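# nightly structure sweep
# worker-07 picked up a monomer target from the shared queue
# config: single-sequence mode, recycle default, output format = structure tokens
# input follows
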Amino acid sequence: MDYSVKNCKAVNSYVLERSKKKYSGFGTIIKAEREKKGWTVVQLYLKVNQLSSKGNQIVSYESLLRWERGDGIPQIESTVALAKALKKPELIQLRVQAVELAKRKNPHELELTRI
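# output follows
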């Protein structure tokens, strides 16, 4: 139950497909969006933690690296802060769908359209 992401420019959506890592689709999007903005992992780390609703560190540098590799998925508060920092609200829905897909035994394909 591993997934990667393919960006479908024509419909402006993301399609989750099988890959080697459990949450690689989510990680691929985070990394791609960070790189589009020309940010390092440290810069994203700082921006996400500045957006924390609690005003404290909610994301570690190591966690960001792990998520980008597809080795894990952030908690919902961290996902909301990532979505705000990257200006990608669809990350929240993608996280929910990635968790649901990971629970399924035989997922085929799921499309996430922009919100």
